[in-house]
Amino acid sequence: MSRAAIAIVAVIAVVLLVTVGAIVLTTSRSAPQPAAQANGTRVAFYGDSYTLGTGASARSKRWSTVICRERGWTEFNHSTNGLGFINNRAELRIDEPAQVIADKPDIVFITMGLNDNFSYDTSAKQIHAQIGTDFRRLKTALPDARFIVVEPFWYTDQRPTSLGVIIRWVKEAASDIDADYIPGASRWIEHHPEWMASDGLHPNDAGYAEMAKRMDMELSRLGL
């Protein structure tokens, strides 16, 4: 082969290498990226230890985080151990509704009420009044948010009379602000001691998994 022919072959080889390299580089840069989990929906929770996830081995196991992760929602969870509409509110000096409002959520979950059973005998009137006050305050501050009110959770097979009364008050307040209402949550872990953490008060990972399953079913019913 002549020197001229060899030179032509070399030039062609270089051109092919550059072209292939450019194709590979372009393909690499333009490859579609995995879709982000978050879809922009901001979801805030006004709740107690059962929404905080106390008793779970990790926050990722709590029902609120599970349903948000599955739906690509951004979770804002200010839930507090021992807090009720009235119970421990003055002592803890926590204003969860204010925190929820500051989050500017698209969806608000209200899962409060369990701990107020422990204050019912001395503060029933105050509890009833505060439920309505909190609901109206949140609705006024967040008129475009979708509200999902969950029947107060409960933790034993024995049910005090106060529980039924507080459940009724919460349901009525939900209706007053045109919120979606999820019934039956006080019985979701009933008769299943194996779903309780070692403290006997809160769900364990299996308990929260069951709560997430039940919540998922209810949200699907609501089109969420």
From TrEMBL:
Keywords (A to Z) from UniProt: Hydrolase
Matching CDD domains: SGNH_hydrolase
Signal peptide segment: none
Protein name: SGNH/GDSL hydrolase family protein
Organism this protein belongs to: Lacisediminihabitans changchengi
SGNH hydrolase-type esterase domain boundaries: 45-209
One Pfam family of this chain: Lipase_GDSL_2
Single GO MF annotation: hydrolase activity
Claim: Methyltransferase is one of the keywords in the record: no
